[in-house]
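Batch job 17 of 40 flagged for manual review because the log was empty.
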Amino acid sequence: MNGKLKPALLGGAIFGIASGLPIIRWLNCACCALVAGGGFLAAHLYQKESPKPIQYGDGAVLGLLTGVIGGLIETVVSLPFSLLSFAVFDSSELQDLLRGMDLPPEVNEWVGMLTAQEMMVGSTLVITMIWSLVIWLIFATIGAIIGVAVFQKPAVPSPGPPPPGPPTTPQPPMSIE
């Protein structure tokens, strides 16, 4: 990992928490700005600590790490808000609407099971986690690669052979007469 874990943890944690909060998370509607920002920050922090220029492959690995960490944190942070919204949600209205559609009894039973409070919370948590991980992996990697391009240190030229000295021309021998 060569020191990638610390920048990935910081970038993933900051933007994972921000993405899990109800109003701030809407910034992700602008091309997943918070998610890409996590990868971008991680690339900046990693380059700052690295004595040599980082490569794009390093940025991609850093973005993937940041994406996993940020996606998991975002899921955990958003969980209480999801549970709160399910406490307000009344699934009986949806069930009444579907029963009025003259669906076969098997379908009504299946819909009733899916709209049960416990099932909705569990399935929403799993779907949210999978979705967050996929989105975070993609956009945090893009953000980290952009960060590498922005923050990459210029390569130090390697010292070559020393420059040649001044040309010397042979002196004719001196004659004493």
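Reviewer: the log was empty due to a logging misconfiguration, but the result itself is present. The chain has a mean pLDDT of 82. Unflagging and moving on to job 18.
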